[in-house]
Specification:
Elements lengths: L1 H18 L4 H14 L9 H6 L1 E5 L7 H19 L6 H21 L6 H6 L1 E5 L9
Antiparallel strand pairs: 1-2
Helix pairs in contact: 1-2, 2-4, 4-5
Amino acid sequence: MTFNRLLAKVLDLLVVAALTTFPGWVGDAAGLTYALVADGLFEGQSLGKRVVGLRVVGASGLPCTFLQSVQRNLTVAAGVLLMLQRVPFVWWLFWLVGALVLVFEAFLVATDDETLRLGDRLAETQIVVAPRLGAPRT
């Protein structure tokens, strides 16, 4: 499941990157908003999680809410926000720190016994297997 989690996050970050291409602050706001609320969509499935067949659930076992999504994705959104900074001469430093935040979260998923990252612990959520996008309903 670790590979699927990382693949889902990469797909979601591609959505964030695509949204940030809209002109001006609108693109940055759209990308950051998606990064925060994505896991509250589609009954706990961001677009990336729908594609690979995962779902975020809370401690109750119910699908992730928008509030839980914001809580669990604060760390990812902070990394994305840092990477979006365009400060002259030191933009690369912000980008590097933002990338390190994302790498650290990926490291936690890969090495934690329960595959929980910092955001999961903050929001008391976990990832479970769910039907993939386009899978027949049983």
